[in-house]
């Protein structure tokens, strides 16, 4: 694409994307739907899009003058080499771990939540399913049950697993800081990152949470660090065998911890294969594709091996059919009188009427939990035809059903309140579902620092935390989406493709969560964890070697 044309188009694309997100998101937040036939809505998008496009044109032009070609001034990184690299990683990790330890004592034995009991019960009963990644079921559930067997206390088991995860993530974050310091980040930047990784609430919550999201995010961070190193200097990357091993292992573990990680990684590898058709990548094409293919193969073998050895039930379809299930439920709930008796009869075969009456626009769990997998497997074509027939009759209803479970990821003004009214083990959700917070049975919260416990309960469950102007923005997935897309569009605008490509993978991950059951922070924690790397790439000087290629 012509450079001048690209610099005109990118701010316009970005501006109108943000305009659509803001207008659609506001309508979904206030009305629960989008009035697609309302001309005023499209006029608002047009006006706002023009204003934002003009503003972004100026901002990107000024930012380019500020950062390019020389980039922000920073240290050369020589100081960090005065101390052995491994020692620095452990030093940073130790500081972060101590920060976590204070919160751990406040919320002892940790945050045992988000299907934690279900995963533990699979280990206790030896009855496994692939509903949750078996690697995490065995890791978390096995640790808790082992310590319980030794001590007689489930709290001790939960605490032990929490401490192990805290240590693992502290090491990963410490390694990340060390890598950025080696690339030239100054002392103040290192201190800021220690404070950020050790104290930012969203990161701390999931570092102390038994759910798979924390470890998954740690693996994604390692992957992106390795991808940045590869695209910066492929020859040097393959000279360092540790980098190759790190990318292989982190990719494999990432996929073992979340199934959507495999889908995103597969598409990413396809992108790499297309990119490597360029002659400049020929020396590295085979090595990189073999490395990535090996990681996917290892994942498939290990994952299938777990399922076979554990005789895990793999008959569930509702996770991958979350969006279609929610669309059918919305049409029945909102426009049920337009369905024929035959359509209703077919629908009830896979979704009982009682389940459809539990339709919640913001979360699919109440409906999909009763999805009849056996009926669906018996005649998939029949139910796919029902879905397509209703789509032709209710296209806007289908769009609203999907947007209502995903707009919190891309609208900064969204309040995370998807579980309002749901009663769990120790409380009933009211105005906020930002974080699960509790300790599910058989665990029990025994706070040793009540002030810390109250602070994290406020951030997790009190809607006021999502209404305080500045705090609400830094806690918002939608605000993170705006920031991320701005930086990535700036890389595109300035032709810094080698800075853009490493972040394609987390971008693909983001697209997969848009097809999930609801908008919860847990699905996009990587937006916060990877943010320092993204901003560092924005400010980092571009190597002459990369620019010349």
From TrEMBL:
- Transmembrane residue ranges: 9-28, 40-60, 90-111, 156-177, 189-208, 214-231, 262-281, 288-310, 470-493
Keyword Secreted listed: no
The signal peptide, as residue positions, is none
Q: Which domain of life is it from?
A: Bacteria
Q: Which InterPro entries match?
A: DUF6020 (IPR046062)
Protein keywords: Membrane, Transmembrane, Transmembrane helix
Q: Write down what this protein is called.
A: DUF6020 family protein
Species this protein is from: Suilimivivens aceti
